[in-house]
Specification:
Elements: H1 3-23, H2 45-52
């Protein structure tokens, strides 16, 4: 194992240690990013059905990317 990968492992382990300490109320609050928490949401069947009726903004538009006006390389000259 190289010393570089060992140093990375030490940094990751220390970050984990400080995040655990911060979540238990120890250490400075603003030094490390906060640990994420679950954000569980519950939707009724009616709300889920209403979401199926929403038309995406991408449907019905032709303003997306196209190859119109693309000239790559030398143009082909047809001589009669």
């Amino acid at each position: 194992m190289s010393s570089y990968s060992l140093a990375i492992q030490i940094v990751i382990k220390s970050m984990h240690f400080f995040l655990q300490a911060q979540s238990k109320g120890q250490g400075p609050d603003d030094y490390w990013p906060k640990k994420s928490h679950k954000n569980v949401r519950e939707f009724s069947e009616e709300q889920l059905r209403e979401g199926q009726n929403v038309i995406s903004l991408q449907y019905g538009t032709n303003k997306g990317a196209s190859q119109a006006g693309m000239n790559i390389g030398k143009s082909r000259h047809i001589i009669d």
